[in-house]
Amino acid sequence: MSEPKHLKPMGLVTSSLIFFIPAFLTFLLLVPGRDAVIAMGYEPRTAFLMVGAVAFGMLFFVTAGLYIAEGHRWTWRAFKERLRLKRMTGKEWAATLLLAVFMTAVYLGLLFAGTREWIAQYIPIPAWYSGEGETNSPMLGAYWIIWARLGLFVLNIFGEELLWRGMLLPRQELAHGRWAWLIHGTQWTLYHAWKPWELLMLWPGDLALAAVCQWTKSTTPGIVAHAIFNFIPIVLVTLVVFGVIG
């Protein structure tokens, strides 16, 4: 699969706007928007799932808008080529699995090292963030939560990867060359500003994911590594629902 030859470089200002406008809207949805949904009578866990679906679903519309603006044909071949959805070689699979391990290890390492608590001295962590909100609704046997989380998981992974790694990173590479991963990974970290107490824990993994996608010239490693990293909370929720852990 060849690289699209008619892409234009995307400079820092444009890419920052494309990152930070959705980041701002995501913040509004997941913080005050979530509180507003709770005030309507929904319990906190359901409210998070509802506003999260809107936030991540929004990214698909941004991707489609950019794709249309660039004038591409609506065929699977053209879409796959533009968004660099490629099959991975054995070496790329190995790098992707190592990437997933690195992202998880660094995140958990910084978490257990007290990074979150240190940041909480300056930016208090709201009560709703722990377990996605205080709630009296038991999770044991609530199987719908698993399906809802899986749906949100799909929106999250593909919404972010198709937009950030598929649409933006190739054009950032044209503008910033070998340093595109550093700019891109930092912007992606700041996209998570709705949970600022996690930014330092996410940053190394975000940089690594951007670097691997730039090295392979492919979005696929990002999809796989991001999915593995984000699947861990779903496993924990599933264990709680089935009563394996309390």
Can you offer a commentary on this structure?
This protein has one domain (12-241). Helices cover 71% and strands 0% of the residues. It is built from nine helices and no strands. It has helices spanning 12-39, 44-69, 76-82, 90-112, 115-120, 144-176, 180-191, 199-216, 220-241. The termini are far apart. Mean pLDDT is 92; it is low at 132-136.
In total, how many beta strands? 0
How many domain units?
1
Beta content comes to: under 5%
Largest sheet: none
Low-confidence stretches: 132-136
The average pLDDT score comes to 92
Q: If helices are DSSP runs of H or I spanning 4 or more residues, what is the number of helices?
A: 9
